[in-house]
Amino acid sequence: QVQLVESGGGLVQPGGSLRLSCAASGRTLSSYDMGWFRQAPGKEREFVAAISRGYGSTYYADSVKGRFTISRDNAKNSVYLQMNSLKPEDTAVYYCAADLRWTILSPTRAPKYDYWGQGTQVTVSS
User: Fold this and answer.
1) pLDDT tens digit sequence for 22-39
2) To 5 degrees, how large is the angle CA 125–CA 24–CA 102?
3) C-alpha closest to that of 34 among 86, 71, 5, 3
4) How far apart are CA 99 and CA 126, in angstroms?
5) How far apart are CA 35 and CA 30, in angstroms?
6) 16: exposed, middle or buried (C-beta count within 10 Å: 0-12, 13-18, 19+)?
């Protein structure tokens, strides 16, 4: 089992930046595919970004490509989401997720991940 704890959310003006962190305990994250998802009020949870185990291939939703960057720090057993040029439509609760089963599902799909953090609120507003 693994526990995932997100942090770094908050209120930011349009055009601003935030860096979300996902810290893990119980397992070494470098061995697993990791993802970030978000859910806005009244909307379905949607894929944001993912990073693969091993080589560290990255994947992004079209809506965040070029603005967000996912990365991992194996020494700190953490995954990050750097968010730049934030827009009001980025407002959501952001969740970190881990695939401990090594499934072959697409990294953009929520069912791939079997462990989730509690989420951190990101609000983009002037």
Assistant:
1) 999 888 888 899 999 999
2) 105
3) 71
4) 36
5) 12
6) middle
Q: Is the Cα torsion angle 58, 119, 46, 61 positive or negative in sign?
A: negative
pLDDT of 123 reads: 98
Model confidence at 1: pLDDT above 90? no
**HEC string for 80-125:** EEEECCCCHHHCEEEEEEEECCCCCCCCCCHHHCCEECCCEEEEEC
The greatest distance separating any two alpha carbons of the chain, rounded to the nearest whole angstrom, comes to 41
Question: Which DSSP symbol is given to 58?
Answer: E
For residue 53, list its beta bridge partners. Answer: none
- The pLDDT score that the predictor gives to residue 54 is 85
